[in-house]
Amino acid sequence: MAALAKHHQLHGLQPVLPVPDVAAAADWFVRVLGFELDFLIGEPVARHGRVRAGDGSWGVPIHIHLSRHDGPIVPCGATRLHVGHDIDALHAHALAQGATVLQPPTDQPWGLREMVLQAPGGHRLVLGAEAGHVHDEAPPRAVIACYRPRPGMAAALLDMVRRHVPTLQRLGLATDRAPTLLQAADGTLVEAFEWASSAAITAAHAHPEVQALWAEFDAACEHVKLSQLAEAQQPFAEFTPLDR
Predict the structure, then answer these.
(1) What is the dotted CATH code of the domain comprising 141-241?
(2) Which residues pair with 117 in a beta bridge?
(3) Architecture of the domain spanning 13-130
(4) Do domains 13-130 and 141-241 have the same CATH topology?
């Protein structure tokens, strides 16, 4: 039966994803994954469109159709895309663009390093790269941050700090290592945790959810250097540990 497909030269699989807004969905693929817009059909509201990635110089080009759907959309299954180089950096870029990451890059037992994004319409995109050699390993970055509460903001600041690292971990920006939270004699909170990589730090500075949380920090505290704390002037700095 394989001869039948060869005889008729079947080729060019192009999935069609129902979406609530074709133009917005096309823009998402362009911003988040670097696709190019092929066309939009319909005025003044696009009813159909297509985006593409690749020109044949690396792998087989990808074409995805986007079709406007006015009712509830029930995603079915997942669309898989292959990543040939540095899936971790692509993950950092997707985060910086505000994409919803359902799973950060994870080495799977079947030999792929995969991440899962939620595309417009609620569709799942599984992006996979060969584990072990096509992604660039970036070591975690350990940091110590010091937050001195503004008058009357101590309790609110403590709540923010307790939400901080779990938020970064959920977004794939911090490692799973448990953070350490300490308090100095003057009330300054000292937080030690691990960024997933240098790229994750860059992504955090562009991610809207992280920026919103950091704006809360700015209103509740002054960011100070570790060297400004009296405890840090001693050879063995002692702080009061706080439960998470």
Answers:
(1) 3.30.70.100
(2) 101, 125
(3) Roll (3.10)
(4) no
- How confident is the model at residue 132, as a pLDDT? 66
Mutual angle of helices 87-96 and 22-33, in 10-degree steps? 130
Contact criterion met (CB below 8 Å) for 81 and 63:
no
For residue 134, pLDDT over 50 is answered with no
179 has pLDDT over 80: yes
Residue 135 has pLDDT above 50, yes or no: no
Rounded distance between C-alpha atoms, residue 124 and residue 90, angstroms: 16
Contacts of residue 127, defined as CB under 8 A and 6 or more positions apart, other chains included, come to 80, 81, 82, 83, 87, 90, 114, 115, 116, 117
CB 229 within 8 A of CB 187: no
CA angle 113, 53, 45 (to 5 degrees): 120
Q: What share of the chain has pLDDT > 70, as a percent?
A: 96
